[in-house]
Amino acid sequence: MASLSEQIPNRHVQRWVHDCAEKCSPASVRVLDGSPDEKQQLLAEAVANKVLIPLNRQKWPGCYLHRSHPQDVARTEHCTFICTPEKREAGPTNNWLDDRHAYAMLEAHFQGCMKGKTMFVVPFIMGPAGSPLAKVGIQLTDSIYVAISMGIMTRMGRQTWDQLGSTDDFTRCLHSVGDCDPKRRYICHFPHDNTIWSYGSNYGGNALLGKKCLALRIASFLGRKQGWMAEHMLLVGATNPQGETTYVTGAFPSACGKTNFAMMVPPADYRKAGWKISTVGDDIVWMYVNQRDGRLWAINPEAGYFGVVPGTSEKTNPNAMTAIRHDTIFTNVALLPDGDVWWEGKGDPPKECLDWRGEKWTPGCGRPAAHPNSRFTVSMWNNPILDPKADDPVGVPVSGIIFGGRRSDTIPLCVQSFNWSHGVYLGATLSSETTAAATGQVGVVRRDPMAMRPFCGYNMGDYFRHWLDMRKRLVDPPRIFLVNWFRKNEKGQYLWPGFGENLRVLEWMIGRCRGRASARETALGWSPTANDLNLGGLDLDAETWQRLQAVNAKEMQQELASQQELYDQLGDDMPRELVWQRELTAAAI
Ligand code: OXD
Ligand code: MN
Q: What is the rounded CA–CA span in Å between residue 517 and residue 533?
């Protein structure tokens, strides 16, 4: 067996791994190389240790079920901290810890925490190798589930060493499940040190440190310093019958349909006409100004999808169903006696099964069989509609940016902002009903600026300023839109069919980006009339359309009043432009 220093060619990483091993005292240290053989060994080990359960080989080849600790099923925002010398840097929307204090407190938790366990050294790249935006991370973890999942979600393995060279430009990601006690759970980010320490959770968003921690919180901090953007967005290409592809990004809060939008199947008449959708990413984008054309270009830093399972079906997302048919890890879904899996929304329930905790479940027993935040972890290469440029180091040009929340009322189906700073206002004041993706109450409206409230690694006021400043760097900025697929009538029924039908709205947005679709002015922005959108073949009467697009003065006044909370919270850190944008909206209602 090669020595550690032979396996780790970079001396900065060697030294750091050595120091962490001294602190955590693992029984052994294993450096991953990312090879297919290694993956098979890790899977076999995880099965032997009962971390993974193999599924029926005929129905789900290469697929496994993982059951989490019952109190470790979602992101825990109250245990997530930005650790900096000054509280102002983290701002009022983040939990803050003094960085020295946080290190000292966590040292005590990490001390000896890996006794008797293996410490996996997981080298990974976020972004296509060689991309001007790609970033290297090294994660140390005592969780084999995390090590395997990192292999799916990132470009993991040997190629990392070439990307890193002899520099020390890598994110130091230290992770231990500890005893998985929610009272001793800390997800700590040290942006000034390019460091993440996560203790006490094995859940994706808390433990796969390349994802929310690096690619959003640390990256957003670096992006502001270096003049680019890290955003909680999908990235999708739409190709029209003339063969012209337009890329748009979409920021929607967690569990509001980003994966479904990124993998959408066009309605039958669009398919027949030749429309095609292709996925670049479903959760995170990094965007930069391409000096060649002065436009915003984007990459997906991830290499896999960590998607919400319940509600995924052949009807709602057939492309996701194809993707997860093989080589997928399911977390917290229900298990059938023959090794099949089931979740709410998949189809008829089984007569009996084991629920996500492994307890006997029958229909009508009063509990969900799959956890509402159960997940699939799958490589993007499994996606049948993966965009040909998904691995392109340069990325793709962004023509439009969509902000969307889950709102039963108030917010219309779609509007386009008047200009960039008005678009930043629409994004900054985005709101959504909370979902099961984070612990806490579900269905409460909260302000979720740019869908980044849980993921912005610094002061939200500075983040808005960074958005406004980006305009000055752009020759031709993307057009900005606000959408709401979730408006309901008084019976609680959705007014808009959603899913593939969203392409009708996307087609209008693309038309706006390319200067060939019309709209009328409303208080909230440019709004399509029923004639501007292709509603043919949809069972949608004029009244429903009116209700979908209505800007109701009373509701909007309440909305503007409730935005005050965010404005008060940010106080003087709120850029003046956004104060004025809100006043202009109030004056127009
Ligand atoms: C996610 C989330 O898992 O946003 O993507 O919580
Ligand atoms: Mn997300």
A: 9
